[in-house]
Amino acid sequence: MSIISAKINDAIVIASGWQPKISKIENSTLVAQETRPKTIHERVTICCLDSAINISNKSSLISELLHPANHIDYSDLNHHVKTVLSWCEENLVNQ
Length: 95
Known about the structure:
38% helix; Alpha-Beta Plaits; elongated; 4 strands
């Protein structure tokens, strides 16, 4: 079953640097806690756009800020593979 982790009005912040735990700690301190940020990887945080802008203005570790953003946690890989394959068959033409 899939769980949508980010709504379309959220942002995904991707950090760089040699020590990902530092960026995770830094992001958690710069994000407004009432917006319930979610860290999905040591370098990736989902949060509201205002918090993402705050992080990008104050952090030297940010490599990308994606907005609007969607992220889906999945537990059924086969379902998602079939969905992607179906989309490819409908939308991509091999000439």
